[in-house]
Design goal:
2 domains, ten-stranded mixed sheet, Nucleotidyltransferase, domain 5, globular, about 325 residues, alpha+beta, six-stranded mixed sheet
């Protein structure tokens, strides 16, 4: 038995992504406090085909995942403080741990995590405190129930980095943690990283494992901003908007909202990078929002743009590769 099991953990605002040697899972970051989830059976109505996970722990009782907001009182906190171990963040994390074990078997050793945080949490005056608080709640023994099944997971280590660093390692490293010799040059060149997530658009430029502060920025114009444009009267909760978009909704609204959002994204990139991006060796694109922005980013950066094959999971995969490379 190995000393640790290594995982990449991408604490995203739209979904929690978790990657290990046996594969990856994601859990949509919809959370509701446990309410009248049994009401459909009482009224003789149909239930969802993909019911959310019911998570029980010392920190409360929640429904987690797609459809959670139909089952109880929605919890829609998107502040950075949630990543410091709020009850709903724990519930999302526990649902993720349960989903991975359901797919790949029970963990046979303590876990060592490489955790990716939003870029804005890893720079600035509050970065040290954010990292400490995230480590504090992740490390230790976690006991919980998911859909009535008991789990006990020990996390021995929790190393903290930014999500764009995970993107870089997804590009430069192989699945076994070794450096991809065909991409080794990226370590010596200026490489731009763009990550449009649910809550934020993150920009980072690195060279020789150092970040360039003047090219680094994070701004809350992620997919959440597009969804706000689609629902200006706030008829849906943020998570319900997200689910509606994922299921193909907002078709009419997107005709008006998407060009506005696309211009805002272009403006943020140009404001931070200007024409300097022309000197970058590569521009790595990850994050779920890149699926929507594929055409724009391809037009802006041409052949230098590397858009991850699975942009949603790319950061978690890179964090895992970083974890095992060390």
């Amino acid at each position: 038995m190995t000393d640790f099991l290594y995982f990449g953990e991408d604490l995203g605002a739209g979904a929690n992504k978790f990657c290990g040697s046996q594969g990856s899972v994601q859990v949509i970051s919809q959370v509701s406090s446990n309410g009248a989830g049994h009401i459909n059976s009482m009224l003789g109505l149909k239930s969802r085909r993909d019911n959310p996970t019911r998570v029980e722990s010392a920190f409360g009782s929640f429904f987690v995942g797609s459809g959670a907001h139909e089952m109880g009182r929605p919890v829609t906190n998107l502040d950075f403080e949630r990543f410091a171990g709020s009850p709903e963040m724990r519930a999302i994390f526990y649902a993720t741990l349960a989903k991975y074990q359901e797919a790949h078997g029970v963990f046979t050793a303590p876990l060592s995590l490489m955790v990716g945080l939003p870029l804005l949490m890893t720079i600035g005056d509050e970065a040290i405190e954010y990292k400490k608080s995230v480590k504090a709640w992740l490390k230790g023994v976690h006991e919980f129930e998911a859909d009535g099944k008991s789990y006990r997971v020990e996390i021995a280590k929790a190393n903290i980095t930014s999500q764009p660093v995970g993107a870089l390692h997804r590009y430069t490293h192989n699945a076994d943690g070794t450096i991809n010799v065909n991409r080794k040059e990226a370590w010596e060149q200026e490489v731009g990283i763009i990550s449009p997530g649910f809550n934020t658009l993150e920009l980072l430029v690195v060279k020789e494992q150092r970040a360039f502060e003047r090219f680094t920025a994070g701004n809350t114009v992620g997919v959440r901003r597009l969804l706000e444009l689609c629902d200006p009267k706030e008829m849906y909760s943020p998570a319900e908007r997200d689910e509606k978009l994922r299921s193909g909704g907002f078709k009419q609204e997107l005709k008006t909202a998407f060009p506005i959002w696309e211009d805002e994204i272009r403006g943020e990139i140009e404001k931070r990078w200007g024409k300097y991006h022309q000197r970058f060796y590569k521009i790595l694109v990850v994050g779920g929002g890149s699926i929507l922005l594929n055409d724009l980013l391809s037009r802006m950066f041409g052949a230098r743009a590397w858009i991850a094959e699975n942009p949603v999971m790319a950061t978690a995969e890179g964090l895992y590769r970083l974890a095992i490379s060390k």
